[in-house]
Amino acid sequence: MEKLKTFFKSKTWRIIWGTLKLFISIPIFCVSVFYINKFLFSSNNKLFVFAGDTQGSFYSEFMFDRLLKSEPKNSKFWWESSVAYNKRGDFEEGMRRLNKANSLNATDHLGYTGWIKYTKLKDYENALKDFHRLDKLSNVVEYPWGENIYFQMGICYQGLGNYDSAIVYYDKFIASEKNPDNIYPRMYTYRGKIEADRKNYPKALDFYNKTIGLDKNIAEAYYYKAETYRLINQKDSAKVNYNKSLDLIRNNYKNQDAYDEVFLEIYDTEIQDKLKEL
């Protein structure tokens, strides 16, 4: 023990300790220089990319605040800065920033705003206002967050229980796509659900089968097909389709989102309960 105390007091230890501190401080210094350079000397475009890449972090918020002070009329900065707030559920701040983006450039940002309203807030009515406004402003078919605007409008109308308008926009979606391969198969499942709700069971089954004909791995089509068979008291057919849906869910063939409940989402436990009732 005495030898150890003597060693820590020795010149050799001071050299070793000094070297270790140097090795530790160099990376910290380099990282500090990197961020200082980013904050002070990068162009706004580079800062924008970096802020987006580090979305949700302290650095991202700091950089967006700086960018917005530098260019308060840049709609892209307002829009991108809203994303992290909406992802973590701070919709008041997220929508405040989105509304500012829309006041500066509605055509570029109304689609995302409508998408946020119907996917995260389930505010179908106000989402439709944004989509209708965007559709009037634009001279092309828009694809908010990657999906045809008319398809999304159909979902919103269906979510509100306005089935006639939902069908109008689902049909408009089909008509707007020149390539039939671009029609989302699950749209026919949604159409089937409308017919089932109207007690048009044979027509509902036709739509579910159309989905399956286009893609055999859509769990929702089998689930709602099973539901329809259950309603018309065809229990064996219902059981087959419930089990098929359950199998697809367990193999990750389910429409889902990490952040939100998706439209007409189905659940493993719900199907198991339905099977027990048959």
From TrEMBL:
Ranges occupied by TPR repeats: 147-180, 185-218
Entry-linked Pfam families: TPR_8 (PF13181)
The keyword Membrane is annotated on this UniProt entry: yes
Keywords, in A-Z order: Membrane, Repeat, TPR repeat, Transmembrane, Transmembrane helix
Residue ranges of the TM segments: 12-36
Domain of life: Bacteria
Alphabetical list of InterPro entries matching this protein: TPR-like_helical_dom_sf, TPR_rpt, Ycf3
Entries under PANTHER family matching the protein: TETRATRICOPEPTIDE REPEAT PROTEIN 6 (PTHR44858), UDP-N-ACETYLGLUCOSAMINE--PEPTIDE N-ACETYLGLUCOSAMINYLTRANSFERASE SPINDLY-RELATED (PTHR44858:SF1)
Protein name: Tetratricopeptide repeat protein
